[in-house]
Amino acid sequence: MGVFGSAIKRREDPALITGKGKYTDDFQMPGMVYATMVRSPFAHAEINSIDTSQAKASPGVLAVYTWQDIEAAGIPGVVPTAWLLPDIKTPDHPILARGKVRYVGDAVAVVVAESRAAARDAADLVQVDYEMLPAVVDVNKALEDGAPQLFDDAPGNLAFDWDLGDKDKTDAAFDGAAHTATLELRNSRLIPHAIEPRAALADFNSSTGELTLHMTSQNPHVHRLLMSIASLGLPEHKIRIVAPEVGGGFGSKIHHYPDEAVAAFCSMQLQVPVKWTATRSETNLTDAHGRDHWSKAEIALDGDGKIVGVRVDTHAAMGAYLSTFAPAVPTYLYGTLMSGQYDIPAIYVHVQAAFTNTAPVDAYRGAGRPEATFVVERLLDAAARVTGLDPAEIRRRNFVAPDAFPYQTQVALAYDSGNYEPALDRALEMVGYADLRQQQAQRRSSGGKLLGIGLSSYIEACGLAPSQVVGALGAQAGLWESAKVRVHPSGSVTVYSGSCGHGQGHETTFSQIVADRLSVDVDQVDVIEGDTEKVQFGMGTYGSRSAAVGGSAIATAVDKVIAKAKKIAAHLLEAAEEDIEFQDGQFQVKGVPDKAQAWGDVVLQAYLAHNLPDDMEPGLEANSFYNPSNFTYPFGTHVAVVEVDPETGQVTLVRYVAVDDVGNVINPMIVDGQLHGGIAQGVGQALWEEAVYDDAGQLTSATLLDYALPRAHYFPTFELDRTVTPCPHNPLGVKGVGEAGAIASPAAVVNAVVDALSHLGVQHLNMPLAPERVWRAIQSQGNGNGQGGA
Amino acid sequence: MFSASFDYHRAGSLGEAVSLLQSQSGAKVLAGGHSLLPMMKLRLAQPGALIDIGHLDELKGVERHGNHLHIGALTTHREVATSGAVREHCAVLAEAAGKIGDPQVRNVGTVGGNIAHADPASDLPAVFVALGATVHLTGPDGDRQVAAKDFFLGLLSTDLRAGELLTRVDVPILRPGTGSAYLKLEHPASGYAVVGAAAVMTLDGSGRCQAAALGLNGVAATPVDGGVVAQALVGQEPTDEALAAAVSQNLSVDDPLGDNFASGEFRVHLAKTYGKRALAAARDRTRR
Q1: What is the pLDDT of residue B1?
Q2: pLDDT reading at A788 higher than 60
Q3: Claim to verify: residue A539 and residue A495 sit in the same structural domain
Q4: Which of A427, A542, A744, B203 has the fewest CB atoms within 10 Å of its CB?
Q5: A233: three-class secondary structure by DSSP
Q6: What is the pLDDT of residue A1?
Q7: Total structural domains within chain A
């Protein structure tokens, strides 16, 4: 095996695990001062007045700004929505509150002081006279008549009303079905919890008019563009955004938030560097949350257990403003996945998205696809129940057949490749499915802890995304990726990638791609990301796109380099270009063993330029702007095995088997690591995590004392395996793995717990499966709706 | 996160700590800081001054005096959990201390700080109540002693008076052969006890319950003393059925706590379940 596919250690880690990684907050600049936001303690209120005089007089304070100051400075001062849908309402989201606050955490003013402590002290002295308004935090209530209204220009709080699929055909399928099942599904609200809080260090140079902004970003060029056109109004080429080490994001660092623009505004006003770093509490209040759906989901089957239709009606909370890519998440990243791994002839998805007095909701690891997988895989278990088939069998009967690819779903996507049954078979074999079913029956009769087995056969569409497709669907950006591969005269290589890793190990995996193609040592390759001044352009890292799109851009650029080097080699060897083969670091004339030029010699000649073909420029580097022709479609089957203590309702995850097909694998260790993290995150949602607002709009799970992030000791060792079905349409055959674990696992775990209790008549439980909810379901013995409490 | 500004005093002796506490208005005592500092960073607490007693060696360590263990207020949870004397003579206390937080917390957090803070979801209060411990206090008017069951007055509220410091806790050692256990349902976020049950049991020569004790954390604002459950078991053969009956018939909780994670009703159910299980575990650890 070559370096592509090899589990080499992450070269990033020695620095990161010894504390030498440099994150935004680690940067210091001469004369640097500190900004602290004054945030609304209320979910919904008019601002009658703001008195900043006491705060301004506080020791060490340099300035206090409110919306008035933004307006007086003449900058646009709003953060934009970058994905539009028909009839969407996109009310302004000012970077400091303009007359009204709409969620707890909405920034009202900013204090800039000589120290963080002075800024924090003065923030308490800003006097805001609020006039309280009734708040609405629940998406169902927000859509009811008479609900408190967040925006005058969004009647009924409706941000958009969207559908996909053939309603009439689907209704007809249900009318003629032998079996149907219906579930009321809650996809709980989550807080991303990147380990590094958001931060910005803004340095505006008034003599050049240039802004340098270090910030926690998954996509610096996108941030630069949005700040230029929407929030700051500076020329794009005068903004430099640097994302140094970024400590995780899970989507939360894609979006353009007000705070980073406010920090820039402060630097523009004060002409000194201004640093802002969120506290953990601010992070929880203001980072875009994830999920928050209520859905009515229905499945219809014929007498043989074949699915004839799926119908889904979803209410999606958007929070107080439409965040950057929020409209895409419950629509084109959600409804399009409702066919799962299954051949379903009729599907209809209807989504109503509402403004609520909560933190905005946007992409969070998986972004729409975990929500879709949860719907589809819960429905498959419900289908197993109503048909009397085993959960594995109902899936098997409905898989898209391996010879049916490319497979056009009823919800827009065309799956390019797949082979679903081997992954299911392998997962069942690994977990010992038949034995577990026997044990389950024994436990039910003998008493003690109950055993549950849950399957999740997921698909995702990732490798975002073919630009023309997403453009037609409302994206205000292309989703291609760029790479520049620069070969230095000595033969070492620097890659400039528009991807922007924040923990994924790009420096390692991207080097493996280059080293493999050029037959150079992996240590001879460096990867540069995350700086708009160094990198040509880039769309960034999210949507499991970096390997499939960013990696393909690199591969394409490398191939251009090789093509040029071949021309040089042919010239030096006095052979025809088509007779040159590049293998193992040698440019070889086919069939003439002693006629060859080494890679290093050809590279040197490219720079010496003493003897190049007549029409050739010196140097050896290439750019690629790679636009994928389709999404990629990773898939797999995950199996969760749980024990439930019937006396306390406590659930223990005792085994977790995952068989994934992510296409070709660049670095198996990194792929396994991504799966481990994703599974933990999804199990976290299923069992522990939930962002909870009370009726007044206070986030009652605002700290880690209340919001239960999973810990290592909550988990068994994950048992992983893979099948490999290469992506047919990109040069690497890779599909992406960043989100798979988080997409598959919530449904696997909930299916397992419901399975454990199915003999009691329990048909569904909402996440998180905290002990009380499970205990109440057991107590009710499946009476009522089987939902077991709130 | 930054606390509001405050004055800091490091006490050189217990006497100095007491006089500083008297002279500094709005002062709080800083021991391990694991409860106080987070509250200050969130600005839920804004004391004008901190009196740091962390360097007072006289308040540290575990010593046996006759039939009691004296546990200094500044003894860390780790020291309690790993102390040979505690493990031998009062195993339930070592077990509970070993279940507090995580290693970092146990290395810094102190016994005195824990019970002076009186968080109802903390692990030590019910253990001390069940064991019949005595809390030693000192202040401007001299020393006094309070039974653990009388020390906890309410949510984050104790019998500590203004100007007083908690100096040590005295725990009667358990008779040889006594079994004890601390079982806990951890809150998945905080690690605090949703319910924590401390049980102690001694059997007579015929295998009947000679003496027992039960205390419960997390269920109510103050530790629940399950003495009445224990009393009901005396003289009985402690079968699983007998334990379940004793708990379900005798354990009652006034004003149970409830939150997002567990309602009052569920907490009472958990208290009974964990109480029963802790008693069974204690029974299984007895030696005759």
Answers
A1: 75
A2: no
A3: yes
A4: B203
A5: coil
A6: 57
A7: 3
Query: Which residue among A598, A626, A654 closes a domain?
Result: A626
Task: Identify all chain B residues contacting A117, using CB atoms and an 8 Å cutoff.
Answer: 2, 5
Shared-domain flag, residues A595 and A655: no
Q: Measure A532 CA to nearest chain B CA, in Å.
A: 31
Strand positions, DSSP E, A15-135: 33-39, 45-51, 61-65, 100-101, 107-113, 127-132
Residue type (1 letter), A524: Q
From A692, which residue of chain B is nearest by alpha-carbon distance?
B260
Same-domain pairing of A453 and A504: no
Chain B (33-92) residues lying within 8 Å, Cβ to Cβ, of chain A: 42-43
Q: Do A122 and A51 touch, CB atoms closer than 8 A?
A: no
Query: Can you list the alpha helix ranges (DSSP code H) found in A291-390?
Result: 369-387
Task: Please tell me the distance from the alpha carbon of residue A76 to that of residue A477, in angstroms, as a whole number.
Answer: 20
Cis status of the peptide bond prior to A465, with omega within 30 of 0: yes
Chain B contact for A650 (CB, 8 A cutoff): yes
Residues A698 and A608 in one domain: no
In this structure, the answer to whether residues A451 and A379 fall within a common structural domain is: yes
Q: Does A779 touch chain B (CB under 8 A)?
A: no
| Together in a domain, A708 and A726 | yes
Chain A closest CA to B63's CA: distance in Å?
34
Q: If we measure between CA atoms, which residue out of B96, B144, B102, B143 comes closest to residue B122?
A: B96
CB contact under 8 A, A708 and B269: no
Task: Work out the minimum CA distance from A491 to partner chain B, whole angstroms.
Answer: 48
Residues A127 and A202 in one domain: yes
As a CATH number, domain B7-52 is: 3.30.43.10
Q: In which residue ranges of chain B is CATH 3.30.390.50 found?
A: 179-284
Q: How many CA atoms lie within 13 A of A459 on its CB side?
A: 29
CB contact under 8 A, B189 and A714: no
Is there a single domain that holds both residue A412 and residue A391? yes
**Strand locations in A321-410 (E):** 347-355, 407-408
- Which of B2, B189, B274 is opposite residue A120, by nearest beta carbon? B2
For the B179-284 domain, the top CATH level (class) is alpha beta
| Final residue of a structural domain among A603, A626, A649 | A626
Q: Quick one: which of B63, B38, B273 has its CA closest to B167?
A: B63
Closest CA–CA distance from residue A689 to any residue of chain B (Å): 9
ipTM at complex level:
0.96
Task: Kindly report, residue by residue over A110-160, the tens digit of the pLDDT.
Answer: 999 999 999 999 999 999 999 999 999 999 999 999 999 999 999 999 999
What pLDDT was estimated at residue A659?
Answer: 98
CB contact under 8 A, B263 and A714: no
Which positions 174-213 of A are in contact with B (Cβ < 8 Å)?
none
pLDDT band at A785 (very low <50, low <70, confident <90, very high): very low
A191, A690, A772, best to mutate vs chain B, most B CBs in 10 Å: A772
Whether A121 and B5 lie within 8 Å, measured CB to CB: yes
- What domain range includes position A571? 480-626
Nearest CB to B4 within list A121, A707, A709: A121
Q: Which residues contact A170 (CB under 8 A, 6 or more apart)?
A: A309, A310, A311, A346, A347, A348
* Nearest CA among A727, A750, A104 for reference residue A419: A727
The verdict on A116 touching B (C-beta cutoff 8 Å) is yes
The CATH number of residue A387's host domain is 3.30.365.10
Query: Is residue A786 very low, low, confident or very high in pLDDT (cuts 50, 70, 90)?
Result: very low
Q: Does A34 touch chain B (CB under 8 A)?
A: no
User: What pLDDT, on the 0 to 100 scale, is given for residue A781?
Assistant: 77
Every domain of chain B with CATH number 3.30.465.10 lies at 57-172
CATH for B57-172, options being 3.50.50.100, 1.10.287.3610, 3.30.465.10, 3.40.50.10490: 3.30.465.10
**Quick one: DSSP state of residue A551?**
I
- Cβ contact (<8 Å) for A650 and B261? no
Q: Where in chain B is the domain with CATH 3.30.43.10?
A: 7-52
